[in-house]
Amino acid sequence: SSDLVGMALEWIRRDMKEDPVRMTERLNVLLPPDDHVIFIDDFLANGNASKGVMELCEKAGAKIEAMGFIIEKAFQHGGDFLRREGMRYEALATVESLEDCKIVLK
User: Fold this and answer.
1) What is the dihedral of CA 40, 55, 48, 84, to 10 degrees?
2) Are 2 and 49 in contact (CB under 8 A)?
């Protein structure tokens, strides 16, 4: 999902430079300013997909209400970023470590 979000962000950035008014209109058709978003993803690692969705929603004027993940890899610090941003999120499981090929859950 982070690849898809990254591609969408690159498309938006490129088009914003070329024609910001048209791009904003196009983005608002896909994600209207009054939308409320809940972002669900399989893994929270470095938070790149989350950051991308936050940027997309900010540009569109939509509000992210919360995020949800199946697994958070706490050792990759995406959760730290979301907490610093004040983003509400939940994960079904949090992996603290994968050292010595052992999964350590929180």
Assistant:
1) -90
2) yes
pTM: 0.75
pLDDT digits (tens, 9 = 90+) for 49-70: 899 889 888 888 899 999 999 9
Choose among 57, 34, 39, 30: nearest CA to 1.
39
What pLDDT, on the 0 to 100 scale, is given for residue 55? 86
What string of H, E and C letters represents the secondary structure of 61-76? CCEEEEEEEEEEEHHH
What is the distance between the alpha carbons of residues 76 and 96, in angstroms, rounded to a whole number?
A: 9
- Nearest-angstrom CA–CA distance, 87 and 104: 25
């979301």: which residue's tokens?
82
Residue count of the chain, please give it. Answer: 106
Cβ neighbors of 31 (< 8 A, separation 6 or more) are 37, 56, 57, 60, 62
Is 105:83 a contact under the CB 8 Å cutoff? no
